[in-house]
Amino acid sequence: MVRKLSRFVLVAVIVCCGGVVWSTNIAEAHAGLKSSEPAASSVLEQTPKEIVLNFGESVEVSFGSIRLFDSNSKIIVLPTPKHVVKDGVVDTKTVRVAVPDLGRVAFSTRHRPRQKSRRRSLLDPAHMAPATATRTQNQRLQRARRRK
Asked: What is the mean pLDDT of residues 75-102?
């Protein structure tokens, strides 16, 4: 009798855990970049007025980032990126950010998009821990700060 009960409990635990894992969605995923303005590896005579990134799927600008670096790997502060609005319709696949006048300097951009997704949580989102940067990102930021 005890053996049957313990098997039942074990099966119930496995089914419950499997149900929780199966029913939840991945909260974050990276969207692929389809095109950009200015184009990758382009050489320009003047600083562009803006950077436009077009992704293959909807992205959430509040969770992603666009970083601009000068030739010394120093971060150039950019305003908050925004979705492109065409004819009153928000294009959630395209992100735009204004670029300050940099003069004639070499620079590079890096982007980290996050696609829009539904997230189910057993916890109230207000009580969830904030997302942290990956180890590689932290190392890059520390190197950039040391160079200043």
From this structure: 86
Distance CA 113, CA 94 (A): 11
Q: Are 53 and 102 in contact (CB under 8 A)?
A: no
Task: Tell which residue, 58, 104, 52, has the closest CA to residue 78.
Answer: 52
**What single letter denotes the amino acid at residue 2?**
V
Mean pLDDT of the chain: 68
In the chain, the amino acid numbered 119 is R
- Of 47, 54, 48, 117, the C-alpha closest to 83 is 54
Q: What is the pTM of this model?
A: 0.53
Spatial separation of the C-alpha atoms in residues 17 and 105, rounded to whole Å: 55
What ranges do the domains of the chain cover? 27-147
Q: Are 131 and 114 in contact (CB under 8 A)?
A: no
Look up the CATH number of domain 27-147. 2.60.40.1220
Q: What order of strands is seen across the sheet that includes strand 33-37?
A: 33-37, 50-55, 89-98, 82-86
Q: Which residue has the tokens 């916890």?
A: 123
**pLDDT value at residue 61:** 78
